[in-house]
């Protein structure tokens, strides 16, 4: 009886691993919002990590330790944080900035798990509004692929992006 149960569990584990291995090696999460403000105004909030506290969905731990480095804003600006288990630990740097249209970031998560992802904010003006697109791309190792069978990266991170974009809209439209 025990041997049958053990073989069944092993078989199911192998099936899950094989199925997970067929998933893509990369992921992409993207959300957008239309903000009634000039791209220059919105760009300032994204291009300066000191201003992220007013709109970022990841500023969830009031005791979080923050360290700013490099340039005050724009290319070369860096930001590191260490917080509770909800925010974890990581660092992010602006690797390219094209005012007022694009900010490219390198995100390095250290805890609760190691990950390095590319993040891009694109701003496209149309009349008196600007469409802001927040995207993130990353690689998926086998462990992340297995987790993805049970938890959707798009839904999990996308929900945070939606909250952040809504907050960005609120502060930029003031």
Explain the overall architecture:
The protein is an alpha+beta fold and 174 residues long. It has one domain (26-172): Alpha-D-Glucose-1,6-Bisphosphate, Chain A, domain 4. It contains four helices and seven strands, in the order αβαββββββαα. The protein has helices spanning 2-21, 39-46, 142-148, 153-172; strands at 26-35, 65-70, 77-82, 89-98, 102-111, 115-126, 129-139. The protein has a seven-stranded antiparallel β-sheet with strand order 1-7-6-5-4-3-2. The protein is elongated, with a radius of gyration of 19 Å. The relative contact order is 0.21.
Short description:
The chain is an alpha+beta fold and 174 residues long.
CATH architecture label name: 2-Layer Sandwich
Oligomeric state: single chain
Number of strands: 7
Residues in helices, as a percent range: 25-40%
Q: What is the helix tally?
A: 4
* Percent of sequence in beta strands: 35-45%
Sum up the overall morphology in one term.
elongated
Number of domains: 1
The CATH class turns out to be Alpha Beta
The name CATH uses for the topology is: Alpha-D-Glucose-1,6-Bisphosphate, Chain A, domain 4
């Amino acid at each position: 009886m025990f041997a049958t149960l053990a073989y069944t569990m092993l078989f199911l584990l192998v099936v899950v691993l094989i199925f997970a291995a067929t998933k893509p090696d990369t992921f992409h999460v993207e959300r957008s919002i239309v903000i009634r403000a000039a791209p220059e105004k919105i760009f300032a909030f994204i291009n300066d990590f000191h201003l992220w506290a007013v709109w970022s969905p990841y500023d969830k731990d009031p005791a979080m330790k923050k360290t700013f480095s490099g340039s005050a804003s724009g290319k070369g600006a860096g930001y590191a944080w260490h917080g509770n288990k909800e925010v974890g630990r990581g660092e992010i740097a602006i690797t390219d900035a094209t005012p007022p249209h694009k900010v490219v970031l390198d995100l390095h998560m250290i805890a609760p798990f190691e990950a390095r992802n590319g993040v891009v904010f694109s701003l496209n003006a149309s009349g008196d509004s600007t469409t802001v697109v927040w995207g993130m791309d990353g690689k998926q190792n086998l462990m992340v692929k297995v987790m993805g069978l049970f938890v959707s990266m798009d839904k999990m991170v996308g929900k945070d992006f939606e909250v952040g974009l809504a907050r960005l809209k609120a502060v930029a439209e003031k």
